[in-house]
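To: structure subgroup
Subject: Chain for Friday's discussion

All,

I'm putting the inputs and outputs inline so they're searchable in the archive.
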Amino acid sequence: MGKHKRRKPEIVILSDIHLGTYGCHAEELLRYLKTIKPKKLILNGDIIDMWQFSKHYWPKSHMQVVKHITGLLAKGTKIIYLTGNHDEMLRKFSGFRLGSFQIENKVVLKLNGKRAWVFHGDVFDVTMKYSKWLAKLGAVGYDTLILINTFVNWCLKKLGRERISLSKRVKDSVKTAVKFINDFEKTAADIAISNGYNFVICGHIHQPEIKIIENEKGMVTYLNSGDWVENLTALEYDGTDWTIYRYREDTYAKSVKLPKRLRDKLDNDEIFKDLVNEFLTTRK
């Protein structure tokens, strides 16, 4: 493979990587990451799957993704980690900042005079399953909606029931999937329009998309970054327009060579040592 200059998109949004699970395409993601140098990287939830995480499964390729992302900090990339449902335990750290890294539940981006509202989207699981008035509450306070969602999942766990996960639920049937996806997109768009946002950007449902949604109050551009379990997609912003990146269509990324034996597992001590070292070496 010849020398190839890295692309430098202004913003890249990744979601639903699910590191720590067998379904994660970590090697493919690593190849993609090696072809770009974004000014801003937004990790929009479910990056490390803490619901399904097992100490017996953490391949080197998964660790290399973490290392590469933390390494971007040292190279000047600003990284915003937005919490999702599979990494919801990080929500208690919302507002944490260290150098060019921050953890939030949501973020509003200003893009050429327009505003983009970015969040994972799992809170809509509760709004669509139980009551429409909760969706209206989201227009008043998104963080309040997150608290309600977390409380509902806590109650379900105590009752021995499965926590609500829309991304899993939509796979039950084609008809059900279409309805849930449409409801999800409409709920996100309705709240974004009522708050005057120009873009609303989500993850969670593993369905990459860019489209305009209208209602009686106005219109908004809805975007979804997809996932790295099924679709292997991301959102990229070049300073003017948004596009969906699709790994399967990127012949160059597929040709990027990776170190051998990336599939080897790491022992617990090595995982801890690597994480600490990566954190310390990127602190500035």
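Points worth raising on Friday:
The CA atoms of residues 30 and 65 lie 6 Å apart.
Residues 11-282 form a domain with the Purple Acid Phosphatase; chain A, domain 2 fold (CATH 3.60.21.10).

D.
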